[in-house]
Amino acid sequence: MSFSPRRVLSDLADSRTVAHGATITALSAALTLVDHRSLRPGARFAYRAASAVVAAWILWADLRTTSRETVAPATRAGLTAAAAGLTLGVAEAAETVDGRMQDALQRNGLRRPRLLMAAAGAALTAGSWWLGRRAAGSDAAPDGPADEEYAEEIIDLPDDVRALTAALLTATDAYGAPELRAQLEQARAVLYEGPVEGSFWPGIGFHVPEDLPRAVPGDANFPVLGRYSALGGRTFDVYLSVLEGRLGSLSISEASDWSEADHVAWFDAGRGVHELPGWPDVTELTLLQETPAGLQPAASPRD
């Protein structure tokens, strides 16, 4: 059998294949072997980014395989971006728990605790993949016709979403902002009701004409976000994802200024951004821009 890069990529994107299961198991073990507490800031950022990419890829492949007829491509992209953002958002809390586990194993006389943790993580990942594979059965057909099987319902972009996106994009002329602003002028939205019909969902996908110029970088979160307060004074971040050089999705996540205790209490209580009543007004936002020194106040939107 001849080697086919296209076939390899197809197998990796199919959550039912052994290639996919083996790859995510190996990546899980490799990431667990890393002692993140010994990393310098730059390396720690790369480590967190890798974890976010792996988490997003696992979700994307699973949705592509098992839910291609019920989840539109743009919605799938938005959920994938949200998974990456969530992984980054809880990284500090997750690393704290991981470190405590390592310390506990060392106190119990284990000289190389991360080897045991990696083995356990690999076993859990492999087991989860196997159970998911059995549950998926043969209903999904990733090698069949493409994602156009699902008929997306394209709607007018809500005014509040357009205003929020414009506020982020007018704070800078870098990072492909001019191209993204041009796309926003013609952008529409992909209808997605969320898990509960009729309720607000803190994420929306864009539908952009393909003939418009693309932004560079092509796949990233735009480095200007909007922070505001809701739900009893808690802070939340409105951020924009760019996919393949086009407006991808606008989403809301727990703000990056939350402490470990904030995250733990929030998730232990079963709470989430789905409780938000709707999009914030643009006047509620404090614009922040990523810099080498961390998030800093961004310029005010232009008139």
List keywords for this structure.
single chain, 303 residues, alpha+beta, 2 domains, 9-stranded antiparallel sheet, 9 helices, 9 strands, globular
TL;DR?
With 303 residues, the chain is of the alpha+beta class. It has helices spanning 5-12, 18-33, 41-66, 73-89, 91-107, 113-136, 159-169, 177-186, 260-268, and strands at 154-155, 188-190, 203-207, 220-221, 224-230, 234-243, 246-254, 286-291, 294-297. The model is unreliable at 138-150 (pLDDT under 50).
Return the string of H and E elements: HHHHHHEHHEEEEEEHEE
Radius of gyration: 21 Å
The biggest beta sheet is recorded as: 9 strands, antiparallel
- Measured by DSSP, the beta-strand proportion falls in 15-25%
Q: What's the count of strands?
A: 9
General shape: globular
Give average pLDDT, whole number. 82
Provide the domain count.
2
Task: Identify low-pLDDT runs.
Answer: 138-150
Could you give the distance between the termini?
61 Å
Helical content class: 40-55%
Structural class: alpha+beta
Please tally the helical runs, counting DSSP H or I stretches of 4 or more residues: 9
SSE topology sketch:
Elements: H1 5-12, H2 18-33, H3 41-66, H4 73-89, H5 91-107, H6 113-136, E1 154-155, H7 159-169, H8 177-186, E2 188-190, E3 203-207, E4 220-221, E5 224-230, E6 234-243, E7 246-254, H9 260-268, E8 286-291, E9 294-297
Antiparallel strand pairs: 1-2, 2-3, 3-7, 4-6, 5-6, 5-8, 6-7, 8-9
Helix pairs in contact: 2-3, 2-6, 3-4, 7-8
Explained architecture:
This protein starts with a helix and ends in a 6-residue tail after the last strand. The radius of gyration is 21 Å and the shape is globular. The chain folds into 2 domains: 5-136, no CATH class; 152-297, no CATH class. With 303 residues, it is an alpha+beta fold. Strands 1, 2, 3, 4, 5, 6, 7, 8 and 9 form a 9-stranded antiparallel sheet that branches. Helix content is 46%, strand content 16%. The chain is built from 9 helices and 9 strands. It has helices at residues 5-12, 18-33, 41-66, 73-89, 91-107, 113-136, 159-169, 177-186, 260-268; strands spanning 154-155, 188-190, 203-207, 220-221, 224-230, 234-243, 246-254, 286-291, 294-297. The relative contact order is 0.12.
